[in-house]
Fold:
Amino acid sequence: MRGRIRLFFVVILSFLFIFGMSCELPGETGSPSDQTPSESGETQGGDEETPPAEEEPVQTGIVTGQIYESEGRGDLPWVTVTAVGSDVSVISDTDGSFDITLPIGNQRLQFSLSGYEFYDVDVLVEADQTTVLGPDVIGYPPLLSGAIRIVLDWDVYPLDIDAHLYVVSSEEEVYWYLPYTLSGNVANLDWDDTESYGPETITIYDMDTGTYYYSVGNWSEYYTPVSNDYIFSDSKAMVNIYDSGGTLLKTYDVDDAVGDDGLIWWRVFSLENGVITDIMTFNDSAGATWSGGTGGSLPNEP
Structure:
């Protein structure tokens, strides 16, 4: 009797086990068809995920330069050098030098230090190259109201071209030999460069009074004349005129001048009572009103 009861219970338990297996709810078996996309390692639609594209590294180059102050003509440290349109900046060293790493392409550098005035410099940055800035970077004393500053820049050749300002009222010529007016604080040669690029800078302290003539002499051609080797067309010379607020009033490009660019004088403009008048001609002399000077120079000599 006990054996029959035992057998009965075994049959009942087997039946319940078999019945329970056949009645499992969908999704409880863990089959791949019931798994979510994240569990199966596949995206919706069965495609594999595409890894994000790697960004290409930005190509850069180095620009190095030298900063001076115009009055003492010494090195100028602690100047902030910044690339326009970026947050890249460095500080010049105690000897006035600086190195700045920038993305390749055309860049414009700005300079700042309390108590000084600077002008921007453009430079082409090349990949994995060190570019030495051609023009010297000069810190000038800030201009007083009514003053203007005339800045001459050029390329490698001619090595030396000179800015000249003829002051009609005192019949004085401001240039490398006589860098300021003897008759008073009228005009001054702030910076003279003799080894390419410039700048060569003249300040007129009151542009609204008097008459002035500004010209550029090709000293390299005058002093060591070699036919067509050091002429103005090779110079890429530019003259920029700034007011006391740093606004660019006028730009002159030597390529726009007319005449024989093998001559040694480029007459650029005149200034009379605040009005700038273009001249823009090449000549073999500085002109009747531009010649001489009280510094012992020969007439019309650069």
User: Anything to note?
Assistant: The first helix runs from residue 2 to 22. The chain has three helices and 18 strands. Helices lie at 2-22, 37-40, 219-223. The two ends are 139 Å apart (CA to CA).
